[in-house]
Amino acid sequence: MGVKRNVGLFTALGYKGGATMWTYIFHRLGGVALFIFFSMYILVLAGVSPVNTIFYDRSFQIVILFLGLFHAINGLRITMLDLWPAGLEYMPQAVRVEGVVLLLVYGFVLFVILGG
Amino acid sequence: MQAVKPRTLPLFKRGLNFETAMWFLARLSVLAIYGFMLAGILGGLVVSAQTHTNLAEVLRWAFFPNQTGNPLGAMPWVSMLAKIMVIAFIAVVSWHGVHGILVIADDYIADLTAQRWYHKAMIGYAVVVNVIAVYVIWKA
């Protein structure tokens, strides 16, 4: 059930939750972006061709890949720590490892997209 | 050094209610997504090697089955297996996605009547999307 928090956007963003808070925010942003992407994909499958042109737009690819990769890598960390609760004690280290993996994979993806 | 007291309940002490089941299914569905992606890439490698098809063609067909010719046409059983896998992948992704959107929306929308309506709308959307996907992929 939802609750009324009465907290403004800027107040919420001012919360000093550190890297863990930002992973939470970006995970949600990534989830919404991937859901939009999924809906567009179904439209392309159904033969709605104008959507296809958006798929080939480089800026769209760069943004959606960042959000998608972030969601996938962060989701893997969340799943691993959820299924192995003792690992929650090492959350800050896990977030740092996640950041390094994201940088490496996204760097490679950027190299392929921009180089291709 | 004093032992750190765990701040979470072990899995077997959490009890099986609706919330726990949905939490667990959200994790299971994401593991299934990773599994399908891995199987898809491995399958693409095997099929491209056996049919002398460019791997890029196989992957393009897997992602956009109605856009290009089906490189699996020469291998009917593999083609059928691939279709079932893509359909299952879309089913799992839509389930995970709809569940995620509902979790986010429930956090910001407190009105219970509104919640009931968009819950039904999102589940209906997932059903329609899956019907379209099954039709397009099976006919590809």
Short description:
The complex is a heterodimer of chains A (116) and B (140). With 116 residues, chain A is mainly alpha-helical. Chain A has helices at 9-13, 18-45, 49-55, 58-83, 91-115.
Word description of this protein:
- The complex is a heterodimer of chains A (116) and B (140).
- With 116 residues, chain A is mainly alpha-helical.
- Helices cover 78% and strands 0% of the residues of chain A.
- Chain A has five helices and no strands.
- Chain A is globular.
- Chain A starts with 8 loop residues before the first helix and ends with a helix.
- Chain B has helices spanning 18-51, 55-63, 76-108, 112-139.
- The mean pLDDT of chain B is 79.
- The chains are: A mainly alpha (116), B mainly alpha (140).
- The interface between A and B is medium-sized, with 25 and 36 residues.
Assembly of the depicted chains: heterodimer
Secondary-structure content class of chain B: mainly alpha
Number of helices of chain B: 4
Radius of gyration of chain B, in Å, reads: 20 Å
Low-confidence stretches of chain A: none
Helix content of chain A: over 70%
Compute the number of strand runs of chain B. Answer: 0
Topology (elements, then pairings):
The complex is a heterodimer of chains A (116) and B (140).
Chain A lengths: L8 H5 L4 H28 L3 H7 L2 H26 L7 H25 L1
Chain B lengths: L17 H34 L3 H9 L12 H33 L3 H28 L1
Helix pairs in contact in B: 1-2, 1-3, 3-4
